[in-house]
Amino acid sequence: MDDLALEAGERAMSARDVAVLGAAMHPWGKWGRGFVEYGVKAARDALADAGVDWRDVGSIVGADTVRGGYPGYVSGATFAKALGWQGARVTSVYAACASGAQAVQTARTQILAGLADVVLVVGADAAPKGFFRPAGGDRPDDPDWLRFRVLGATNPAYFGLYARRRMAVHGDTLADFAQVKVKNAAMGALNPYARYRKTVTTEEVAASAVVADPLRLLDICATSDGAAALVLSSVDFARRHGAPDPVRIRAVSTVTPEYPQTVLDLPDIATDSAAVAAPPARPFRAAIAHAAYEEAGIGPDELSLAEVYDLSTALELQWYEDLALCGEGEAAKLLRDGATALGGRVPVNASGGLASFGEAVPAQAIAQVCELTWQLRGTAGARQVPGARVGITANQGLFGHGSSVIAVR
Amino acid sequence: MTRQRTPVVADWFSGEGENFRLLGTRCSACGSVFFPREDSYCRNPGCAGGELAEVPLSKRGRVWSYTDGRYRPPAPYASDPEQEWEPYTLVAVELEAERMVVLGQAVPGVTPGQLAVGTEVEVVPGVLNEDADTTWTTWHWKPVNGR
Ligand SMILES: [Zn+2]
User: Tell me, what's the ipTM?
Assistant: First the structure.
């Protein structure tokens, strides 16, 4: 081995990189089966993609679902048992929509601490019909229960508030929101794992029923069954395993908001007061991305693509600004210029996004990393972003959970 | 038979008519105001913690944003599944003195079309729902120069 060449290669890596050896999904949809079955399929396919035997995995991390009963709360063990007990270190994590990022973060810290060489990360969900609803019982100390009991404020209601605010402050239009759906549906149509694989027109968006003014059914993401899994390892293990140039995770941001949280956030009934303590330099979503950029030593101008949480079309536009893809209020222009479509400067949601998948809560943040992996490997097929080298995911979990992953190759 | 009038959440609001107010708490050490009220701890990370005393919030504010609910929300929102669903308007209101945004339903009959970001509104007593023996009371936001 040429020592000099190795040294040069090392410089392109960060000591805090972990390798993505394998990535896989169970297709999103409404399949009418249990979350364990979906998770096992994704896990087995990710192990096969990595070329790793399950019995050689030192640690398994499950992203929990609150909809599968007790097995869903201890998903790490549930998946480990289904794959066949083999004595691995086991962890189960929950952080609402950010559960997948927490699972990736847990795996990464174990690898970087030298506690495990290879870690399997799995998230799966079997979603309910209709609106997400709070846990049962009479629980006036739970903000999630209160917002339904006192206000009837569903998730789409919050998305409607954000959308109206953008229209008033930034001049976004209903046509802009519809264009986000059109763009994502066009990319989702190219993704075999997406639930919705049909292109959509602005007319179809405009003809769909209003759910929460000004947003329509096709502006808002559905809830789906689905599963995603990753096999992560140390870069050394990857090299020994015959993967000298793997996709590498360089940063994982799992930050909380800073007080006072001045952006009205699900499931809160009010923001914090900024009368005494000054608001933070960056609002929460921007701070999530900023922490990832800082940790990676990578700036937004270096991105090849981004996968963001388009719970609604308007929220995707908000993410453009929070990821600093453009300045505040400039997201609609970025969209109209085609910069975030396939072939644009920085395609957003090349996977099709939540618009094409529907949300499978604990799987979704992991699925975002799967898409980055395939894009950075150059194996994303018809939706490939040419020459992709750097990607970011962004998402936010209820109750103050940041979620952003930067991957490089 | 008369129904008992009961607040949907205890101690979040009080008063009749003109004197109706949302109730928060204020920390005696740092002055931070909280709504929904914090009674056990101050959440300002720069504060060592003080006594939390009840404080009425500003009566008036300006619309930060608004939306409506075109479909029946799930439980625990109370609504009669036998009755046709009546959409209601949800308003986020910015209180200037407190520098905070507080959600609430608009008074019945106010539609999104009658609101704009910046519209001045005030808090008024309202009824959330009624069951066999209880009238559950709440707060509503009402445009000040309501059309
Ligand atoms: Zn205090």
Answer: 0.96
